[in-house]
Design a protein that fits this description.
The complex is a heterodimer of chains A (390) and B (161). With 390 residues, chain A is of the alpha/beta class. Chain A is built from 13 helices and 12 strands. Chain A folds into 2 domains: 143 residues, Aspartate Aminotransferase, domain 1 (Alpha-Beta Complex); 224 residues, Type I PLP-dependent aspartate aminotransferase-like (Major domain) (Aspartate Aminotransferase, domain 2, 3-Layer(aba) Sandwich). With 161 residues, chain B is an alpha+beta fold. In chain B, 35% of the residues lie in helices and 21% in strands. In chain B, the strands form 2 sheets. In chain B, strands 2-3-1-4 form a 4-stranded antiparallel beta sheet. The two termini of chain B are 31 Å apart. The chains are: A alpha/beta (390), B alpha+beta (161). The structure holds pyridoxal-5'-phosphate. The site of pyridoxal-5'-phosphate has 13 residues of chain A, from helix 5.
Amino acid sequence: MDYSNILSKKVQALEFSGIRKFFDIAASVKDVISLSVGEPDFKSPWEVRKEAVRILEQGRTAYTANAGLAELRQAISDYLYKRSSIRYDASEQIIVTVGGSEAIDLSLRALIDTGDEVLIPQPSFVCYAPIVKLVNGVAVPIETKAEDNFKLTAKALKEHITPKTKALVLPFPNNPTGAVMRKNDLEEIAAVLRDTNIIVISDEIYSELTYGNERHISISQIDGMEERTVVINGFSKAFAMTGWRLGFAAAPKEIILQMLKIHQYAIMSSPTVSQFAAITALNECEKDIEYMRGEYDMRRRLIVDGVRELGLECFEPEGAFYIFPSIKSTGMTSQEFCEKLVQTHKVAVVPGDAFGACGEGYIRISYAYSLEHIMTALERMRQFLKDIGA
Amino acid sequence: MTDKERIINILRQDARISNEKIAVMLNITVDEAAKMISELEDEGIIIGYTAITNDEKMDKNFVCALIDVKVSPQVSCGYDGVAMKIAAYREVSSVYLMSGGYDLSVTIKGRNLREVAMFVTERLAPLDGVISTTTHFILHRYKEKDKMFTRNTDERSLVSP
Ligand SMILES: Cc1ncc(COP(=O)(O)O)c(C=O)c1O
């Protein structure tokens, strides 16, 4: 059968992510040590795992309400209030999703009609543009630059707004650059958006992982922005719960209602055991977050220092658990660099262009690894750079 | 967490790490790091640095045993006298005072079963104050001092977004 004539042209035209392609290369090499994962090396907090076992023992295995367990939505509402002083209504303004991923998908599908433009600062997480394409929207990348500390600037934003602009994805703290947007940065963005109908999809999945004295602030907290912002967050990164597949969105009730409609047909309800466990995560695991943040922070300093010592230029990230050093000095492309590094010295790092064309010339290194692992990998990279005469 | 607690945490992960790297991680100067470490040593909080070894790999007859020791406490010094005597033996790698059914838990390492058995019958059991011993041989060690004996327990995918 000729499936190419059967399968959706649109889907066939979609490419696998650069990360997936690089995985295939890295997996073909033996004894690779990886600095390539986008998930914590910690196990989910013990209390969370214990609660899941208890819930299973009780046989709580039915669907929940479409939008999620009422008690969990209340806990999310309380959590958001504690962090941002915004009180989202637990029954109308919060939806529990299958990871932040589904929340991103729902919000884009709820907003985009054919031809609508979605602004996507890049380098950034890989899913935004493909989802926009699947709903016949137009993904408009906005390059963020090292000299701006990889922040989105009001100037760049303005240059890309057209009458067709429907939404802005705001992916900070950023994967892969580690950039964050501080209050004054967000105020400049808000000033551009306040008089428009552009909705911000604020992907704050790394909100608990910012370093230094200032904590994460959401654009929804800036004057006039709550009504035009969908806040996306989840349990994967902060609580080390990637495999539980649980996230959420908080937004004006009109937006949540449409998202709920899609969720109801596509998903029904998010995993029940995960939802119960997530209540425990929010209520009892602040100290675990604190501990993990402290560990990441130490590794962050160690790896930035280590990479700079190797002679690579590296922006000091303030959030998430990645660094994004430049490899332009080697004269290689990101792909060449990463392929060669993994093949000759068995260290896997991700080519920067996997996060958007403007990531060319950079690599993403994750520090969600033990100190020992990081130091071994850095040593191999030192040898690699020496061998290629960089 | 205080900086000293962080230093202990780092050294427990890797005691060979340089002061320079510790300083980078804590955002302090190398001198400050060195000073805190020597304070921890002086205060007896850090009592030493040692290698964690997989002895079975070097010598397949190597054995390790946990011995439960019942002791009658002495009037002058309780359990300390006997405990210190046991601890002084070169073969003994740890001695703990326990709650529960017996008093001291003693770990000993030997080149083979016979060596351990001889140690218990000739040196440990006859000590004044020792009432009885129960020897448990350790069959396999999975984790010691926070370190796993097997590598690559990372179940995450090699590369992920
Ligand atoms: C920026 C960003 N957003 C969203 C996600 C999705 O996470 P999840 O679906 O596990 O919540 C990720 C995962 O890597 C991410 O890096």
